[in-house]
Design a protein that fits this description.
homodimer, about 450 residues, alpha+beta, Cytochrome Bc1 Complex, Chain A, domain 1, six-stranded mixed beta sheet, five-stranded mixed beta sheet
Chain lengths: ~450, ~450
């Protein structure tokens, strides 16, 4: 029920595709060599609901998730925050259950549950013993269509999300900067609007808005069910038909075609100075294609570019700025590929000791220029691919990561096959393709940079 | 038929309220002392169309304008450019007249005509002999509802607006910068979207979009007729009823409530470096209320603040930077008050000779800080009010300016009375009110600045 969009975006999703192949055979990348026990099954219910089953029999637990293909970027103009509002409203009373009953049922059996909202989706999930899977499905299917949205419920939960905004965004210089930086990077595409919503619009959200949104998007044909864990596909299918299958198909939704970003022709900066900031930092962003909008190979190349340039302690940025020059306490890069529309590629840095922010930024820029001009070596690329493999092996241990990866992929225009073929596509990327995306997208004349500064450095 | 929005915004509208009282008695500001020959008449037709008649009997000409209360800020998401598209489509064939027939009728009688689009309205106008007024009304009423929107017409005119965008925006570093600067200042309110539209959205505008837009907005109850010139109100009324009056009232439109801007917490910059730029310049903008959104007196105070700070050769900025310090070839300020939603207050400067842009900017900032901290003197304020009076006397000679002033006011939520009472409201503004709006709105920690630089100063 907590607001996890930013966390998700910055952590899980940034590495989600690196984790994607945790369900596949990591050593060979060959889909046809996967052990049968890892075979992912997907099918449709008659009402259009997609179902993905990810077997994992090591522990007697199951992760159950429902992903709705609606996020903040689908909100009507002036109604920002309503997608995330449902992350809260979905825990209130339905025609069949009192508010809080679902939560109690989960905790009574020692399970855990939560929900999160992002630009492209809203997801609800529970982790429980396999014997409780049917109960989870029953609760989840019930709240998909039977929520009781009264004025009282709206008012109470609206106060909650307003307070959430105050505490998580307005009280945090980092969050305020990030919000205005996003809205400066994106001048037309709806990723410019914060997932939690603009305060002045959240305050006006009402029952009419909520009912319209619920009836439009909370329908089986707009949902993806992910079940990962100690359960068989046939069992999941039978239970899903018994619960979700009873819900009538909703009206067809139009394609998710959103306003797209015009070409950027300028350098843009956004600066926040605040007395609560002790160490300055900067981040520079470029608009780049996502896995859903990229030409074949470009998103995979951007993933590897981010890994080589700034994916960890072995990356160029870390080695140059933190290890060799010693001017930064941190420096890196990331690419958020699992998005429905064009996304961002980011580099960032924080000075260490007496080093100046401007020098850290210049050093990062120099690495960006170098990689765009000279490309990467075959050895670097192979090592980056190997680091991906290691992260996959690690991710294999996390049932909920697997569920998240499949859910996010299917909620952003991809399918199970895309995930299964991804390692092979990564493996095929050449140094030339890395250089090409770096040269094409990481252009110094057209970036957007955010600066977080201590108060006294306001004039920096 | 030309794209005049930017020109209008920067010139006519910037001074429109200064010109407003051209129809009133400039020496006294007292509405009840106006000569009867200047009395402005307004009334409604039965179908909801507003009519304003502004008598001016000095020359045997009449200015006829129809203002539709729809501009680029009313466009559906992803359909930018469609309001301006109608500025072109309205000159094509109707059920009763071939394409170009209206234009020829005007030029055959020695008249002139044109159209323009802005954020809040789209207007069509003709200047002709009074004997031709009925003919103008007949043509204008015809195209309000009888336009024939075929796929061929859409395609042909879409090519025209695309070329217009290429030549007027994409080929102009100033225009490209301004577009991205607007979209950086405005992060939620639709003034962030360029009036001419984003290229990638203009390319997709189709017949379905156009028909929906036309049927929604091109209706008598969404239009204001302004007739200024050598004609009597009774004559205008009779002719309007005979022409426009025959059109059925359209469906009621919802209130023009648009997404509003969140509070700005950052400093933002947008920089364009281009080889075609020889002399750099900068402009700094703040979000401020418009006449339609301001508390009583605030917009009037902002108008006078702009006049004192940077309204002309007598202003503080010009005197300090151009005359005394000699570092700028130009420096000033303006306030665009006649807008439906919150608007912008702008200061700007251009270095002279070897002066550096950064020094010009610092000198402008210093004047902004000084006026916000110390306010203005009673003498300065009186002189500013007097300069307004002189500009009014000047504007009185321009029939089309008068028509524009009334049209823009009525299309942005105002009425005839607002215009008539405006001089008195200006006269009542005190130095304290000027200081208050300067201190409240011109905050240096929260501005948005655009820099236009020669190529070699990219790193400036």
């Amino acid at each position: 029920m907590t607001f996890q969009a930013e966390w998700l975006r910055k952590t899980l999703l940034a590495t989600s595709l690196a984790l994607v192949t945790a369900g596949l055979a990591p050593a060979t990348f060959a889909a046809d060599k996967r052990p049968a026990e890892f075979k992912v099954t997907d099918f449709l219910l008659d009402n259009g609901m997609e179902v993905v089953v990810i077997p994992d029999h090591r522990s007697p637990i199951v992760t159950h998730m429902v992903w709705y293909k609606v996020g903040s970027a689908d909100e009507p103009p002036g109604k920002s925050g309503i997608a995330h509002f449902f992350e809260h409203l979905m825990f209130k009373a339905t025609a069949n259950h009192a508010a809080g009953e679902f939560d109690r049922a989960v905790s009574d059996i020692g399970g855990s549950n939560n929900a999160f909202t992002s630009y492209d989706y809203t997801a609800f999930h529970e982790t429980v013993a396999p014997s409780a899977l049917e109960l989870m499905m029953s609760f989840e299917a019930d709240r998909m269509r039977n929520l009781i949205l009264t004025d009282d419920v709206i008012k109470t939960e609206r106060d909650v999300i307003l307070e959430e905004r105050r505490s998580r965004i307005d009280n945090s210089p980092e969050a305020v900067l990030e919000e205005e930086l996003d809205a400066t990077l994106w001048q037309n595409q709806p990723y410019r609007i914060p997932v939690i919503g603009w305060m002045q619009e959240m305050e006006q959200l009402n029952r009419t808005d909520a009912v319209a949104f619920y009836n439009k998007y909370y329908q089986p044909n707009n949902a993806v069910l992910i079940v990962a864990g100690d359960v068989e596909p046939d069992t999941v299918k039978a239970l899903a038909e018994k619960t979700y299958g009873k819900i009538a198909r909703g009206p067809d939704l139009p394609p998710r075609v959103r306003p797209v970003e015009p070409e950027q022709n300028t350098r843009r900066t956004v600066t926040l100075s605040d007395a609560r900031v002790s160490v300055p930092n900067f981040s520079t962003q470029w608009v780049v294609p996502s896995y859903h909008t990229a030409k074949p190979g470009e998103a995979e190349a951007l993933d590897l570019l981010a890994e080589i340039l700034g994916g960890g302690n072995r990356s160029r940025l870390y080695q140059a700025l933190v290890v060799r020059q010693g001017i930064a306490s941190n420096a890196g890069a990331y690419f958020q590929g699992t998005m429905l529309d064009d996304t961002n590629f980011t580099v960032y840095g924080t000075p260490r000791g007496d080093a100046r922010l401007v020098d850290v930024e210049a050093a990062v820029d120099a690495e960006v220029v170098r990689i765009a001009r000279e490309g990467v070596t075959a050895k670097e690329l192979d090592k980056a691919k190997d680091r991906y493999v290691r992260s996959m092996v690690f991710a294999r241990d996390k049932q909920d990561s697997m569920a998240n990866i499949y859910g996010a992929e299917l909620a952003t225009g991809g399918n199970v096959q895309d995930i299964e073929q991804w390692p092979e596509r990564i493996r095929n990327i050449t140094p030339g393709e890395i250089k090409a995306v770096a040269a094409r997208y990481l252009v110094l004349a057209r970036w957007t940079t955010g600066y977080l500064l201590p108060q006294q450095q306001a004039g920096n």
